[in-house]
Amino acid sequence: MTQRTLDGQSYPLPPGNLGLPILGETLSFLQDRNFANKRHKKYGSVFKTHLFGRPTVILMGPEANRFILSTHFDHFSWREGWPKMFRELLGRSLFLQDGEEHRRNRKLLMPAFHGPALNQYITTMEEIIDRYLNNWEKQGSIAWFFELKKMTFEIASILLIGSEPGELTDMLSQWFTELTSGLFTLPIALPGTTYSKALKARDRLLNHIEKVVQERQKHPTSDALGLLVQTRDEEGNSLSLEELKVQALLMLFAGHETTTSMLASFNMVLAQNRQIRARLNTEIENISPKGSITLEQLRQMTYLDQVLKEVERFYPPVAGGFRGVVKPCVFGGYYIPEGWQLLYRIDATHLDQRVYTNPEQFDPDRFSPERAENKKMEYSLVGFGGGSRICLGYTFAQMEMKIFAVHLLRHYDWELLPDQDLSFHPISTINSGSGLLVKFYRYN
User: What keywords would UniProt list here (predicted)?
Assistant: First the structure.
């Protein structure tokens, strides 16, 4: 095993297989959902491979997360870590920025996702959610995953960039589906390929967003993009047109993809666990049985918090996170060279038996104050990241999911239809196999 030297000491490279020349093990990574699990069993919690044209180290466990997200944060780059497809399709947005550029822009975006802005979003969220619930009741049987994707995209597009419901929002949603299909595919831009369609969808979205930004600059609004257009840093500088376009694109992407995955998992779990649902119904009946919901009422729903945390753990909306290694380092006794790519595994961390009792069992009580299993080790629940770069829209997403849960559970019931694939597949985010087919109806 090749040895490397750091600070006067010699360390081996991680075990593993770099695969074929150029391609490495990329095709296996894209096609085999058990790719990482198989190699974890063979090599342990640190191993090397070759993905998307670069030698890659894959790590798992809370210690690895803490190493990457906290103690050795400056050794890794977001922009240099995510594959070419992410950089081309999502642009130089907050997601792919580092250092001072990221700190400055995160601070500028923060007001749109916290504090007073959240209160302004509640009524619109409730109106959209109620409309979708009524439509699903009329349809009777639905492919819920795809319906949820439409709903969360409409919420994101209306609240974040001020779109209106209708044909335009439907078209934007279709373009986003085409864009996200290109995030985990070979970046071959030949006509007719998935990646070529993704690039065209990106351009259409950016052209639309540019027009919206120019309108907001002339006529300020209270949606998130309107707030971004008006915000200034300490020196009085605002975001440029190009910055506003890519940040808005990121807001739309992050504002509905992970939320869709979480809500689909939540709904499936409640169909399979009636006792959990009964406890949620009791909590909602005691705190907010009818009418509009307040942030204070949502904060009081502690069991709903536990269930959502367990959904995040058991069905993490994103399976892992990429980083680029900008300084050589050592983890677990292995040398990780500068210029390599790193992938930390969220899904495997959430099944770590050192942290979670019977991790293969869905159990919201593991997050109760009495047990608080995620407090045993730092960075053991990282479905939305951790440390200084925890997901900026996490509070927005939590509020949306809780509002949806309350309105759903107050009046509606659903049953899973037989003979369907209930597995969830990690692509850009976790996607449902059959689309979560259900019979949906009102019970009071």
Answer: Heme, Iron, Metal-binding, Monooxygenase, Oxidoreductase
Q: Are residues 306 and 372 in contact, defined by beta-carbon separation less than 8 angstroms?
A: no
391 marked as binding residue? yes
CATH superfamily of 3-442: Cytochrome P450 (1.10.630.10)
* Residue 393 tokens, joined: 């829209």
**Amino acid type, 185:** T
Distance between CA atoms of residues 74 and 86, nearest Å: 21
Q: Do 440 and 272 contact (CB within 8 A), yes or no?
A: no
Work out the angle between the directed axes of helices 302-314 and 394-411 (0-180°, nearest 10).
110
Closest CA to 232 of 120, 107, 115, 116: 107
342: three-class secondary structure by DSSP: strand
The DSSP element (H or E) to which 152 belongs, if any, is helix 144-161
Sequence-separated (6 or more) residues with CB below 8 Å from residue 399: 118, 121, 122, 125, 295, 298
Q: Tokens 């466990």 identify what position? A: 61
183-210 CB burial, b ≥16 within 10 A, e <16 = bbbebeeeeeeebbbbbbbbebbeebbe
Which pLDDT does position 290 carry in this prediction? Answer: 92
CA-nearest of 395, 100, 436 to 259 is 395
Cα 157 to Cα 164: distance, rounded to the nearest angstrom: 8
Contacts from 271-278 at CB under 8 Å and sequence distance 24+? Answer: 271/414, 271/415, 271/416, 271/438, 272/416, 273/362, 276/307, 276/364, 277/409
User: Rounded to the nearest 5°, which phi and psi values hold at 244?
Assistant: -60, -40
pTM: 0.91
Listed by start position, the domains of the chain span 3-442
C-alpha to C-alpha distance for 404 and 62, rounded to whole angstroms: 31
Both tokens of 35, joined, read: 């790719």
137-177 pLDDT, tens digit per residue, is 999 999 999 899 899 989 988 888 878 777 788 888 888 88
**Are 247 and 239 in contact, with CB atoms under 8 Å apart?**
yes
With bands split at pLDDT 50, 70 and 90, how would you rate the model's confidence at 393?
A: confident
Distance, in Å, from the CA atom of 368 to the CA atom of 85, rounded to the nearest integer, reads 40
The set of residues, in sequence order, having a beta carbon less than 8 Å from that of 42 and lying 6+ positions away, is none
Amino acid at 315: Y
Q: What share of the chain is helix, strand, coil (3-state, %, to 5)?
A: 55, 15, 30
